[in-house]
């Protein structure tokens, strides 16, 4: 019965994946992967998969337009957001610039630009699982804020919520981060430490340049006209974050009600204009809800454009408050969510925040009515936060970042050899207690990752086993997820591309396979290895020969394979073989 239920769920999963709208684009991308040369005078910008034109990538685009006139700029745009993106360009008087090209999201033009742009720039993770950075490309990821709420493996459901973030970060050449605090979190909670081959560029945030120096006069004039704020009115911006754990969006209606109650309370304060900036995950719901009409912002205004005119910020755990520190204006922390700290958690204690914290709407209104009454109380904490988080935001961050990404990357150096252990589908049959113990033992001397196949997850029988295995190893390893679907037989080139896609282009010193059976998943996994240690298996051995490997030795039922014989590596391999024997 369980087997039948699994087969049905497996079939349904495959059909659903094949119906995803990115599959034709992915096929086109893969078919043309090595066909065209990379053009170093082209930059492609992907901000939240074509849903916005804002943030640090847009600051870099504007800088390049002035400083590198030969560059062409390709912006990925979802059709539903084209008018908004066009209005943003108009706000910045760039809508007639012939060097800027808009391409529809997942179109063939998008895929061709993604393959040929010398620079690929994102502020998130490029949510689709298509992109695999080519050797001649420079991938710059500016992320989208300093985290207060927990991220990556530190949050509930973090392994599955982070699989695409992890592989995208591993491909990133320049990870642009605003401060050392954020860099430490990424190194730890996205498991970059020990394997990441790129460079963290801690040099301030380009998007905050407009907060450190005046907005250009034409944009300042247009901003005033769009907001229609009187000269004596204060502007309050309410900008809550999303409280999800990375896997679901729950309780939306309840949160919208709370947002509306807070806005109406703030709007009762005399001589005040109140605006609302919801998290992108709530954008559609807010747009459809007419209650929020009085508080909506013109769509051509970026978040930090609005902050230049904001007198008081109200937020909860959103990273927007870190940016707002640059202005040295007051912040109120209003938490509308039940048990948020238990659901998602945060890195910093509420008692250390640079402003008052409340969960009561009446108290929120009282605090917002007269900030002067409490600002002195939080002056030291505000100063401490400013020094810790935004001291590099001096108005020159964009210039420094653009200069940095022109420099060659230093070679990656890691203290421990890297090992990728095949997890197959992480069920009790394919990933036993022996495998769990092996990962734990290896972590004492190696940087350890696990490669898992996602397909069985939607079946609860397999899913429970999967997450049990995840819980057993995630503290000492990182987990790469293979989202491949069964299709045509894999060629060597297709397997290499799929392997790079799964692990973000990483080449592991060792790949270990204890499973007796051979699989499509392993065909991809093996392409990421320098040395393979595996149980003897004929089909797997034949595949390794196709990949250019040669068998070097056999010991205790395990074979050692390498592309090029290396006595030093072979000697080191003995240590791994001993580890395997210890857990058998």
Automatic annotation (TrEMBL):
The keyword Lipoprotein does not apply. Its main location: membrane. It is a peripheral membrane protein. It is found in: Cell membrane. One of its GO terms (cellular component) is plasma membrane. GO terms for biological process: teichoic acid biosynthetic process. It holds the Pfam family Glyphos_transf. InterPro entries: Glycerophosphate_synth, TagF_C, TagF_N, Teichoic_Acid_Biosynth. Keywords: Cell membrane, Membrane, Teichoic acid biosynthesis, Transferase. GO terms for molecular function: CDP-glycerol glycerophosphotransferase activity. PANTHER family: TEICHOIC ACID GLYCEROL-PHOSPHATE PRIMASE (PTHR37316), TEICHOIC ACID GLYCEROL-PHOSPHATE TRANSFERASE (PTHR37316:SF3). This is Teichoic acid biosynthesis protein. It comes from Weissella halotolerans DSM 20190.
């Amino acid at each position: 019965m369980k087997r039948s239920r699994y087969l049905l769920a497996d079939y349904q999963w495959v059909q659903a994946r094949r119906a995803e709208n990115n599959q034709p684009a992915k096929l086109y991308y893969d078919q043309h992967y090595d066909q065209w040369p990379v053009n170093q005078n082209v930059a492609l910008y992907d901000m939240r998969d074509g849903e916005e034109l804002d943030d640090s990538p847009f600051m870099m685009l504007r800088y390049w337009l002035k400083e590198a006139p030969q560059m062409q700029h390709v912006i990925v745009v979802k059709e539903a957001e084209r008018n908004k993106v066009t209005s943003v360009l108009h706000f910045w008087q760039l809508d007639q610039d012939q060097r800027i090209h808009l391409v529809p999201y997942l179109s063939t033009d998008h895929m061709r630009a993604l393959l040929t742009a010398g620079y690929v720039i994102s502020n998130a993770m490029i949510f689709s699982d298509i992109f695999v950075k080519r050797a001649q490309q420079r991938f710059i990821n500016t992320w989208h804020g300093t985290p207060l709420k927990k991220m990556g493996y530190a949050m509930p459901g973090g392994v599955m919520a982070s699989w695409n973030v992890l592989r995208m970060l591993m491909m990133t050449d320049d990870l642009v981060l605003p401060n050392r605090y954020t860099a430490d979190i990424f190194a730890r909670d996205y498991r970059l430490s020990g394997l990441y081959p790129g460079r963290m560029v801690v040099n301030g945030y380009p998007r905050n340049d407009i907060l450190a120096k005046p907005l250009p006069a034409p944009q300042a004039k247009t901003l005033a006209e769009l907001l229609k704020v009187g000269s004596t009115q204060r502007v309050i911006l309410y900008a809550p974050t999303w409280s999800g754990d990375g896997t679901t969006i729950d309780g939306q209606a309840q949160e919208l009600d709370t947002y509306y109650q807070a806005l109406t309370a703030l709007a009762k304060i005399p001589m005040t204009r109140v605006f609302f900036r919801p998290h992108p995950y709530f954008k559609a719901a807010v747009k459809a809800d007419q209650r929020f009409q009085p508080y909506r912002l013109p769509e051509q205004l970026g978040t930090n454009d609005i902050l230049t005119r904001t007198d008081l910020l109200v937020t909860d755990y959103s990273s927007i408050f870190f940016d707002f520190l640059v202005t040295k204006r007051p912040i109120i922390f209003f938490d509308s969510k039940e048990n948020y700290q238990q659901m998602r958690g945060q890195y910093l204690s509420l008692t250390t925040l640079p402003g008052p914290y409340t969960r009561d709407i009446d108290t929120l209104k009282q605090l917002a009515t007269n900030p002067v009454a409490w600002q002195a109380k939080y002056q030291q904490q505000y100063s401490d936060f400013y020094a810790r988080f935004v001291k590099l935001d001096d108005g020159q961050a964009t210039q420094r970042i653009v200069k940095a990404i022109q420099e060659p990357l230093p070679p990656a150096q890691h203290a421990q050899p890297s090992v990728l252990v095949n997890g197959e589908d992480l069920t009790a049959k394919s990933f036993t207690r022996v495998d769990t113990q092996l990962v734990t033992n290896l972590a004492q001397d190696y940087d350890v990752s696990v490669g898992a196949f996602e397909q069985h997850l939607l079946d609860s029988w397999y899913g429970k086993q999967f997450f049990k295995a995840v819980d057993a190893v995630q503290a000492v390893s990182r987990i790469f997820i293979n989202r491949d679907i069964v299709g045509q037989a894999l060629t060597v080139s297709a397997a290499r591309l799929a392997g790079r896609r799964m692990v973000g282009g990483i080449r592991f010193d060792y790949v270990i396979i204890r499973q007796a059976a051979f699989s499509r998943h392993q065909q991809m996994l093996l392409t990421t290895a320098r040395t393979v240690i595996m149980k003897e298996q004929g089909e797997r051995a034949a595949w390794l020969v196709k990949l250019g490997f040669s068998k070097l030795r056999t010991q205790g039922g395990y074979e050692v394979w390498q592309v090029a014989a290396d006595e030093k590596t072979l000697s080191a391999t003995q240590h791994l073989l001993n580890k395997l024997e210890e857990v058998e």
